[in-house]
Amino acid sequence: MKIPISVLVVIFQPNRDVLLIERADRSGFWQSVTGSLDAPDENLELAAKREVFEETGIKVDSLPPGSLQNMRHHIEYEIYPEWRFRYAPGVTKNIEHWFALEVPENIAIKLSPREHVDYQWLPFAEAAKKCFSRSNGEAILKLFSAS
Question: Who contacts 47 (Cβ-Cβ below 8 Å, separation ≥6)?
Answer without folding.
Answer: 6, 7, 35, 37, 38
